[in-house]
Amino acid sequence: MSEPAEWDEYEWSWTGTLTRWAAATTGPDAAQALAAAREHRDLWLNGYRNTLGFVSLLLQRTGPAA
Length: 66
Fold this sequence. Notes:
Layout: H1 4-23, H2 28-48
């Protein structure tokens, strides 16, 4: 089982890498990458940071096969 500090390290690692890449790059890709990193960081800090879990789904076709 992962500890909260391990999740933090993972999240900061990839958003930090993306942010550093965007800072060293010019053009629209850099701006989009920076926006994505910021959005994810905000969602992580203000949303699902302390909500980790798993889900198992059992899917079954209910009608005739197409």
